[in-house]
Amino acid sequence: xxxxxxxxxxxxxxxxxxxxxxxxxKTGKGSYYRVVYALNGAQRERSxxxxxxAKQRAVLASKEIMRGGDRRAELSISEFLDAYLDPExxxxxxxxxxxxxARSQRNLLNLYLRTPFGATKCSDIDNDFLRAIIKxxxxxxxxxxxxxxxxxxxxxxxxxxxxxxxxxxxxxxxxNEVRKLAGIKTAIESGENGLFINEDEIPTHGDVxxxxxxxxxVSGMWWHELMFNLAAYSxxxxxxxxxxxxxxxxxxxxxIRITQQCLEDGGKKERTxxxxxxxxxxxxxxxxxSGYQLLKELExxxxxxxxxxxxxxxxxxxxxxxxxxxxxxxWISQGSFAKHIRRPAQEIIGWSKKADGNxxxxxxxxxxxxxxxxxxxLKQSPSDVAIAAGHTDxxxxxxxxxxxxxxxxxxxxxxx
Length: 416
Prior knowledge:
Elements: E1 12-13, E2 19-21, E3 33-39, E4 42-48, H1 51-66, H2 77-84, H3 87-90, H4 99-117, H5 127-135, H6 140-160, H7 167-171, H8 174-180, H9 205-219, H10 223-234, H11 238-242, E5 249-250, E6 255-258, E7 261-265, E8 268-272, E9 280-283, H12 294-306, H13 334-349, H14 365-377, H15 382-389, H16 394-402, H17 405-415
Antiparallel strand pairs: 1-2, 2-3, 3-4, 5-6, 6-9, 7-8
Helix pairs in contact: 4-6, 5-8, 6-8, 9-10, 9-13, 10-12, 10-14, 14-15, 15-16
């Protein structure tokens, strides 16, 4: 009969007094490694199937001891999510969420985390655990949203003591799991970070002109061509352009003041601050690179709107003259716009699609056109473009649209 380990002799011991005991049997309860330690005057014990996992649990237990015995890591994932999804608790160290974003996070985390793993202890949240969750996503797009949610959740959880792993260790390789969902291997540009946007992710000037003109044909409204071109060459987000009224536009200076946006959550529309709470002023060219008379057509639309005898009462109780409206003269529905105008126009002109059948470009991709146009073609400074686009800082703009690889190769080429 094979020898078994001595139950009373520790295999390993950490500086914090955490002991690891080897299995005492081949099968059954005694076949696990035991991680034993004292916390708040009580004896605690965790089990592991391998020595490596036992060492990981010993490290976590040591951190818990050194942190003074914070027991949140021993609570359930369901209790953790209750705290994380509570605005009052989350916003102490995190950013305020809009209603639409809050609903999206709640739905994702409840579906992929709370329902299957709600009873699991937070101390079991490690890199393998998060990777396994992402693998359950049905598409690459869902996987990306889920990965972003898990990153935000993990960062907050570490700060608040629910998760004891380091952030770098916990989140390593999650992007790789997302790429695997596409069914094909996606290359990463050497020298760039996760924000970098490749040229093939940005519509060309010709692509913009084609989809804009086709949108007007699909809808029967000439000004939808203006809407697409204005978005592409002013950098406005869809929610911002939906809420755009004539008082925000200065045609002499060619500027637009953005102080609010219209967001839609579960079919209900409301007026909120722009993304990140950043109000800003942006600009637009007199004529687009494809020859569209942007200023002239914008003045034409303003004249039409001003000719309306009385502005329509909007859902938020205000009377404003919106530039782009639905058939009732009020805010456009983002879902209806995508379904009946944007996607049909994209289909007609043959915009490329991803492996999951979704278009590679969306309305938001028009913001990339604005940024690259002013940075690469008009040679404007990243800090100026960041202000007009509403980015967090110039570093974000540089990371997304300029990157490091081109400059690096240009220097190497010049040196030889």
